[in-house]
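Weekly modeling sync, notes
Attendees: S.R. (lead), two postdocs, one rotation student

Agenda item 3: backlog of single-chain predictions. S.R. asked that every request posted to the team notebook include the full sequence so nobody has to chase files. The rotation student volunteered to paste the first one in as an example of the format we agreed on. Action items at the bottom.

Example entry:
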Amino acid sequence: MKLTEKIAQSKSTLFSIEILPPLKGKSIQSIYDSIDPLMEFKPAFVDVTYHREEYVYKKREGGYLEKVSIRKRPGTVGICAAIMNKYNVDAVPHIICGGFTKEETENALIDLQFLGIDNVLALRGDSIKTEAAFVPEPGGHNYALDLVQQINDMNKGKYMDEEMKDAEPTNFCMGIAGYPEKHFEAPNMYSDLKYLKAKVDAGAEYIVTQMFFDNKKYFEFVKSCRDGGINVPIIPGLKMITQKRQLNALPKIFHIDMPIDLYKEIEKCKDDAQVKEVGINWAIQQSKELIKNNVPCMHFYTMGTSETTRRVASAVF
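Predicted structure, as returned to the notebook:
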């Protein structure tokens, strides 16, 4: 079922989670272990992230170095199928530009359609750690907007092979990412919102935000979107802080601000056990305020664990 239909039909704020695929060589049981404790809250959907390839240099005979591509967390399509089969819940795979040609993207989307997957989250994806900026795959997309346009074309029955006649259209509900504190590569919020609207105009039907710890940032972002003619559902994404080192790590990795009050509370903690309690309580207060303001869905970045999400959900749902 399309997420926009679920949102339209629901009379209250929905609950959803995002999970990481297991590392290569690990079983899917770790996924089940993280989802099982959260099923009592009836998630509207489960996002499954996709991590693009990384490159390592391996020393070969003769002393030369060979650049080798590796994927540490493969299997997103299979994981989505397994989740839908086991839990009868909609799984939403991340579709990224990085590492894929347009043809590979088309083939992946065809596979998803065959599996009965109705929703996808279209993202550009991050640059490879060894590259200073994002570099598209030869024959691939440079921007999420291009990816959205390709999916929208397929929804209209337009495939890459222009000679195809009477092609069956896909029926994907597309989500995209939004950044309440601006994407770090955007020169300003005006520019960021301009391209966000372009993706909505190209067919994106809902937005899931980057994590934030100050609800004011989210409310201001939503108002700016509405003022700019972006009227699709905007789902807030939350993460719970569980370790003191995240005070500096999260702003550095995700380019977000850490509220002073939260920073001071965590600074006073003697160990990570106390940090976790502060993080959970902060997320509970965030969630209560967001739900009070009728957000369409609360989306939690579980990062492979369920305990903190379960405690927050128990307090607000």
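Discussion: group reviewed the output briefly. The beta strands are 14-19, 45-48, 54-59, 65-70, 90-96, 119-123, 173-178, 206-211, 234-238, 297-301.
Action items: rotation student to repeat for the remaining queue; S.R. to check formatting next week.
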